Amino acid sequence: MKRAIVIGLGIFGYNVARDLFENGFDVVVVDKNKDAIQKMKNYSTKAILADGTDKEVMDEIGVQEDDVAIISFGEDLAAATLITLHLKQMRVKNIIVKAPNEEHKMILEKVGATDVIIPEMDVAKKISKSLISPNVMDYIPLSEDYMIIELAPPNSFLGKTIAELQLRSKHNIEVIAVRDVLSDAIHMVPAADFVVKDGEVLVVVGKEKDIRKIK
Question: Residue 119's pLDDT is what?
Answer without folding.
Answer: 78
